[in-house]
């Protein structure tokens, strides 16, 4: 049996029509197939490979760590230098009140940890999330998801969660003294890269402070330079109580984190002791890779990303109905999912990998590695334009 047959037979599937691209290797912004194909990766594994595939700085860190140790013991008991370095360097890029890092394995786990922490700190039972929000797929994180379609079939989920409209100030009145935390994305990712207005985000932060609810900023997709700042919340002049991280942190290796104040995190140490534990969180190899990512990002001019990304925002075509996003997370909107799907298929055939969004199938996802060059951006735009031309001609 060939690879595709074994893939379909023995790997659990999550959609009826997987892409079935056989990847042989990856380098920089390109994926290479088993038959000599090459695809320009315009989605970075959904904002994961932010410094490109197999960046030398990340490879160096991984190689050095392979000479030392992998797993040693359940997280939090032993002093492991990759964890210590990563946490120490992360907080240097954050406000002083965000000075304690809990390392985990994914964004979903970061959400779960943040939910537990918010309950312990406030003693309150309820949460607020927003329509078209995505915070993960485990039961707690799924309960926060702002889409009934993706939650259907998995109930009952957690009680005490209210879903508000994103970017609607009037709805903020529902945040009250029973609210433990509000979970929000600085740019709604799976809704099609929708940034809120500055005033709404400030009003949200003010309302949380007024009633004593914690503000949890989901930076899983927006973190680590993706928006042109280290973290998305920096655009709005606010400081959250907790942030969740993952995706771009590990350079392709699995890692996540949630960050809060040391005083807040100390709640996990008593009543009960070991209030939140993980076996593989902060895996030394993943933590070392994350330090390699920081090595790269700290040498980059993140403010320059707006200029670098500008050609994606200035494109014009008769099929295009709108462009939204922030920094190097861009959504192109079309009349229908059918058009988006045709564009994606044409791109795949001609050497470009792109995608749509969970809650916005009419939009095309553009989320390349932050290390993409102007010439690679032009290559991507040429391929996308050719695809739109072909689809327009096909549909008459």
Structure description:
- The chain is α/β, with parallel strands linked by helices.
- The chain has 13 helices and 15 strands.
- It has 2 domains: 3-54 and 301-394, Aspartate Aminotransferase, domain 1 (Alpha-Beta Complex); 57-297, 3-Layer(aba) Sandwich (Aspartate Aminotransferase, domain 2), CATH 3.40.640.
- The chain has helices spanning 3-10, 44-47, 56-66, 81-91, 107-122, 139-144, 148-151, 198-211, 262-265, 284-297, 305-314, 337-349, 374-394, and strands at 23-27, 30-33, 38-41, 100-104, 126-130, 161-164, 179-184, 214-218, 242-245, 256-260, 322-326, 329-333, 352-353, 355-357, 360-366.
- The protein is globular.
β-sheet strand percentage: 15-25%
In helices, the fraction of residues equals: 25-40%
**Major beta-sheet overview:** 7 strands, mixed
Given as residue ranges, the uncertain stretches (5+ residues, pLDDT < 50) are none
**SSE arrangement, N to C:** HEEEHHHEHEHHEEHEEEHHHEEHEEEH
Mass-distribution shape = globular
How many strands?
A: 15
Number of helices: 13
In CATH terms, the superfamily of the largest domain is Type I PLP-dependent aspartate aminotransferase-like (Major domain)
- In round numbers, the mean pLDDT is 96
Distance N to C terminus: 42 Å
């Amino acid at each position: 049996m060939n690879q595709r047959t074994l893939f379909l037979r023995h790997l659990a599937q999550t959609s009826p029509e997987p892409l079935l691209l056989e990847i042989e290797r990856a380098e920089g912004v390109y994926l290479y197939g088993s038959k000599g194909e090459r695809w320009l990766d315009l989605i970075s594994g959904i904002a994961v490979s932010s410094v490109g595939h197999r960046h030398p700085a990340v490879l160096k860190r991984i190689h050095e760590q392979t000479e030392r140790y992998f797993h040693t013991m359940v997280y939090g008991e032993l002093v492991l230098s990759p964890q210590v370095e990563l946490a120490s360097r992360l907080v240097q890029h954050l406000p002083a009140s965000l000075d304690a890092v809990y390392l985990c394995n994914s964004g979903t786990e970061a959400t779960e940890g943040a939910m537990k922490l918010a309950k312990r700190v406030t003693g309150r039972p309820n949460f607020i999330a927003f329509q078209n929000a995505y915070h993960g797929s485990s039961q707690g994180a799924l309960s926060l998801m702002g889409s009934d379609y993706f939650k259907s079939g998995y109930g009952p989920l957690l009680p005490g969660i209210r879903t508000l409209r994103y970017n609607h100030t009037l709805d903020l009145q529902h945040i009250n003294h029973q609210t433990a935390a509000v979970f929000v994305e600085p740019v709604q990712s799976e809704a099609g890269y929708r940034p809120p207005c500055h005033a709404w985000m400030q009003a949200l932060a003010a309302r949380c402070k007024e009633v004593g609810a914690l503000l949890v900023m989901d930076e899983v997709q927006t973190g680590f330079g993706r928006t042109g700042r280290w973290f998305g919340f920096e655009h709005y002049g606010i400081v959250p109580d907790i942030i969740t991280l993952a995706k771009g942190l590990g350079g392709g290796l699995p890692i996540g984190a949630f960050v809060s104040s040391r005083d807040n995190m100390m709640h996990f140490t008593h009543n009960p002791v070991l209030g939140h534990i993980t076996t593989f969180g902060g895996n030394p190899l993943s933590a070392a890779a994350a330090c390699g990512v920081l090595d790269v990002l700290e040498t980059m001019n993140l403010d320059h990303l707006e200029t670098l990304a500008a050609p994606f925002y200035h494109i014009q075509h008769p099929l295009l109905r709108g462009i939204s996003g922030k920094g190097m997370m861009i959504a192109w909107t079309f009349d229908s999912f059918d058009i988006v799907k045709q564009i994606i298929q044409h791109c795949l055939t001609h050497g470009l990998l792109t995608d749509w969004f969970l809650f916005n199938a009419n939009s095309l996802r553009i989320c390349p590695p932050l290390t993409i060059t102007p010439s690679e951006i032009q290559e991507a735009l040429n391929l996308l334009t050719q695809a739109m031309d072909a689809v327009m001609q096909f549909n008459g």
